[in-house]
Every structure is written in C-alpha cells, then in structure tokens.
Design a protein that fits this description.
Layout: H1 4-7, H2 12-20, H3 29-37, H4 43-67, H5 75-87, H6 91-104, H7 109-117, H8 123-139, H9 148-169, H10 178-182, H11 186-214, H12 219-251, H13 257-285
C-alpha cells in the first residue's frame, strides 16, 4: 500500500515556508513541483516576515515612547534586519556574498560563474555584503519615525516581489532553482505584484491603525501617504528585480538561487529609500 504522505496533494505555500523560513516541513516532490510552478506566491512569506517585523517594531516603539531614551531608535533597523536574517537562516545573505564575488571578479563569463559557485567567500562577496548591510541599515532611517510601523513591514513583502521579477526576467541555469526560474513568466511577475500590493495594503492598514493608537498619528493622513509609499515600493521592487536579472544574465548567462537571494537583499535599501523619499518629500510638497 502506498505511503499516504507521498499521495497527498502538493502545496506551494508549504514548500515556500519551509525553504525561506526557519519553519521546517516534511516535503514531498509534489510540494517542490508546486513551488516551482507557483513561485509568484512567495510574497506570502514576505507577509509572515512583515507581521513579525510589525510586532517587533511595536515593542521597540513602546520603549522609545515610554523609556525617554532616544538611542533606542537605532534598534528599529537592527531588530527588523536581524529577524529577516535569522528567520531565513541567512539563505539570501549567502546568495548576496556569492553574487558579489561573481560580479566583482574580472575576466570571461566562465570566470564570473566560477567565482559565483566557489564555496569560499572572497573580497568581492565580503565587500558587497558589508556595503549592502550598511546601506540597508541606514535606509531604515530615511523613513520618518511616525511611518516605521507602516513602511518597514511592507518592505518585506516587496522584497519577495523583486525575487519573482528577477526569476521572470532571468535565464534559467542548469543547477539550483533552474526549474523555478524557467517556470516563472512575466505573467507570474504580474501575479506576484498584485498579490504583493494586496498583502502590503493589509500591513499598511494595520500599521496605520497601530500608529494612530500608539504614536498619535492621524489615521487618514497615514493611510493616504502610506498608499503612496506602497506604490513607490512596488515600482522599486519590480525595477530592482529586472535590473538584477539583467546584470546576472549579462555576467553569468543565467539567474540561479544565489541571484534570487541577492535580489532579496539588494532590494531592501531600494524599497526603503523609495518609501522614505515619498514619505519625507511628498507631504512637504503638498
């Protein structure tokens, strides 16, 4: 008699959560097949990180508001980035270091690929990782304090949208994530964008409501500018996904799992800065 586990229907979400978070599920091939076919659902994983970031930010802002210690504001990017890194088991960070090595090295395409796949991290990988972490950390401060409960949770969703765009615009390799990239189309990217906007809108509404109750922000104003920030984040995420894919196609001839991980990390400062600019400049212009 067949094993009941092997006969169950595959679940893309089950596989995505197992791959991109510390929560481990026993997967069957049907789960992996569904994940590769429905990679556009990965923004749901970003929603999980966004909700966790919202809870952590509430704790930090509570200390800031009631502890009379402004230095605690530095914990805003620290807890959110730490949550993302540890929650993903540094999976995307590993891709970033490999991507840095592969793109920084000079030479032929074969030299780029050799550096990308080398298990040892070189100066290009270390330098890229340090630069991206520093810029990501600082980019959190481009978001006005009264909007941190809105913008930072939303950003986690759009990082995953960027990954789908990178897969959609990338050429598949013959290794890790090859089927995932080959089965992710432009239509998949559009689906991920729509899903990301919907999930981010939910996070935005939660963040605005909590900011209204917690920080005394005006709910109507927060919702209005939060929507503008959402649009800016969507554009930035899509653009970063396409740009990283084109860079990878040019240097390596493909987009693989390392490139997708790098896209996640490279998109964080781009998305946050885009939202920070909108939230800082638009209210003054209007």
């Amino acid at each position: 008699m067949s094993d009941g586990t092997a006969e169950r229907k595959g679940s893309a979400l089950r596989a995505l959560v197992s791959f991109f978070t510390i929560k481990h599920f026993e997967l069957v091939q049907a789960d992996i097949d569904e994940m590769e076919r429905k990679f556009h659902l990965v923004p749901v994983v970003g929603m999980i990180y966004g909700l966790l970031a919202l809870v952590l930010l509430m704790a930090v802002t509570f200390v800031i508001e009631n502890g009379n210690n402004g230095l605690w504001i530095i914990m805003i990017p620290a807890v959110c980035m730490g949550c993302a890194y540890f929650g993903s088991r540094f999976l995307h960070f590993d891709g970033l270091t490999d991507f840095g090595d592969g793109t920084v090295v000079s030479g032929t395409r074969e030299d780029h690929i050799r550096a990308l796949k080398d298990t040892l991290v070189g100066a290009g990988g270390v330098g890229t990782a340090v630069a991206v972490v520093m810029i990501s950390f600082c980019s959190c401060f481009t978001v006005p304090y009264e909007y941190v409960l809105v913008a930072i949770p939303m950003s986690e969703v759009f990082l995953k949208v960027a990954m789908v765009f990178a897969a959609a615009y990338g050429e598949p390799s013959n290794g890790m994530a090859a089927r995932q990239v080959s089965q992710t189309t432009k239509a998949s990217a559009a689906k991920a964008l729509v899903l990301g906007i919907i999930l981010s809108a939910v996070l935005m509404a939660l963040g605005c409501l909590i900011a209204d109750l917690w920080l005394g922000a005006d709910l109507g104003t927060s919702m209005k500018y939060g929507l503008l920030a959402l649009i800016a984040a969507a554009v930035a995420a899509a653009a970063m996904g396409v740009l990283v894919a084109r860079k990878a196609n040019r240097d390596f001839g493909f987009v693989n799992g390392d490139v997708l991980g790098a896209t996640n990390e490279l998109s964080r400062p781009a998305v946050l800065i885009a939202m920070g600019l909108v939230l800082s400049l638009v209210p003054n212009i209007l």
